[in-house]
Design goal:
Layout: E1 15-23, E2 42-48, E3 55-56, H1 63-67, H2 78-95, E4 102-106, H3 114-119, E5 123-127, H4 131-139, E6 144-145, H5 151-161, E7 164-170, H6 179-189, E8 190-201, H7 203-208, E9 221-222, H8 225-234, E10 237-245, E11 251-258, H9 267-278, H10 290-310, E12 315-318, H11 322-331, E13 341-342, E14 360-361, H12 364-369, E15 373-376, H13 382-388, E16 398-401, E17 407-408
Parallel strand pairs: 4-5, 4-7, 5-6, 7-8, 12-13, 12-15, 13-14, 15-16
Antiparallel strand pairs: 1-2, 2-3, 3-9, 8-11, 10-11, 16-17
């Protein structure tokens, strides 16, 4: 059997980063009528390219099969909407944007970010491939093109709407199978002196903090600043600044410009590159050992849930995120260890988690059943969710996060 090819440089992918076995697509929630039917599981075998060092999951599933109709609505997270507003305010101030400017967001979801651009009176456009989500954004007054971005689409959109002063691509860069064509699409949208910002979960933090639940089929690439620079260079873009963010357990926000007009990279770029080199991310060998770390994190969670059951304690989940489905399927957790989970998204309520078939209820279910422990599956929103669950102290419930370290509080 021939090896898969690197999506950046075309080399054979022969080196394993981590193999999580087989799992269903993380957003393929099931209705009650689907529980007795077969489900398709795909490999979660992540490789590292020995030539360019891009850590990647082969495209076992096409982007069109995942994102054309999507279950994730960004606006259900209050903290994520607030994060977007802070970004917009900072970018407007930094770049001097005004009512004559033009902002484009790629993978604009339900308008969670561009609504803040709208409120400032700045012209805006979203590009969002999921038709069901694009419709929600349009209802908020966010003009949205329902397409997947590539060089051809970017060129067409720029011809129809003009080129942008600012293009934002938040938590989408890892979600595209053809990352070079996507990057060329970003360049096509951008003015020659414009700015591109990209937010990505940082591979360095994924490794250091055991964040393996962020590996799923819609995350095709796992990026360091080293590899991000290499990808963008293929599209004529240069990273000029970078911010380290706390989101998703540790992310990077890169600021890039067309290479012909790019300013000199900031000291923050040099600092992150030094950190990555110190951790060994400039070598294949520096990426070794993650499988053992993953096994330890899985064992911690399973041992806790088994001990709770033996002690006669009940455990419910909070949230039904894609990352939770990776975690639960890899650990083999079913309803005997986690009775149900709850989610604020009405789209998910009444459905069942893929693979595990754990039911999803409205948050009110917690007060009805009063579980002893509540496992927060979107652990990256720990502070927001902890505040929402303050009322569970009435019956002495304790909250649990599985990662970066299992913690009961």
């Amino acid at each position: 059997m021939s090896a898969p090819k690197c999506r950046l440089c075309g080399s054979d992918l022969t080196q394993t980063f981590v193999d999580l076995g087989m799992s269903p697509p993380c957003e393929s929630y099931l209705g009650a009528d689907q529980l007795d039917r077969g489900e398709t599981f795909y490999p979660l075998h992540v490789r590292i390219c020995s030539s360019c060092l891009l850590v990647q999951l082969p495209a076992y599933l096409a982007g069109e099969d995942i994102f054309s109709h999507y279950a994730y609505f960004s606006s259900y997270s209050d903290s994520w909407v607030a994060h977007a507003k802070r970004y917009v305010d900072a970018a407007v101030d930094r770049l001097g944007l005004d009512e004559d400017s033009f902002v484009v967001e790629v993978a604009s979801n339900d308008g969670y970010l561009l609504q803040h651009v709208r409120d400032l009176g700045i012209r805006r456009l979203g590009i969002e491939p999921a038709a069901n989500i694009a419709e929600v954004a349009r209802a908020k007054g966010i003009d949205t093109v329902c397409e997947f971005l590539g060089e051809a689409t970017g060129t067409e959109v720029a011809a129809a709407h003009g080129k942008a002063d600012l293009v934002a691509a938040n938590n989408v860069f890892a979600h595209v199978p053809d990352i070079v064509d996507f990057s060329k699409g970003l360049r096509a949208l951008l003015k020659d002196d414009g700015t591109l910002t990209i937010e990505i979960p940082h591979l360095l933090r994924l490794i250091e903090d055991r964040l393996y639940d962020t590996i799923y089929h819609e995350h095709y690439s796992y990026l360091s600043l080293i590899t991000t620079q290499r990808v963008l260079r293929e599209a004529g873009l240069t990273v000029v600044d970078v911010e380290e963010l706390s989101t998703h357990g540790g992310s990077l926000r890169t600021w890039s410009m067309p290479t012909e007009s790019a300013t000199a990279p900031s000291e923050r770029v040099a600092k992150v590159l030094r950190d990555e080199q110190a951790a060994g991310l400039d070598t294949v060998e520096g990426h070794a050992g993650f499988s053992a770390v993953v096994s330890a994190a899985r064992d911690d969670l399973v041992e806790f849930l088994i001990a709770a059951r033996r002690d006669g304690r009940t455990v419910a989940g909070y949230g039904a995120p894609g990352k939770g489905n990776t975690l639960l399927n890899h650990a083999g957790i079913r309803q005997d260890l986690l009775g149900y989970t709850v989610d604020r998204s009405t789209f998910k309520q009444g459905m069942f988690l893929p693979g595990t078939h754990i039911p999803i209820h409205a948050p009110e279910k917690l007060a009805e059943t009063r579980p002893d422990y509540i496992l927060i599956l979107p652990w990256n929103l720990r502070e927001e969710i902890s505040a929402q669950l303050e009322y569970t102290r009435e019956w002495g419930a304790k909250l649990v996060v599985p990662l970066p370290r299992l913690e009961v509080f």
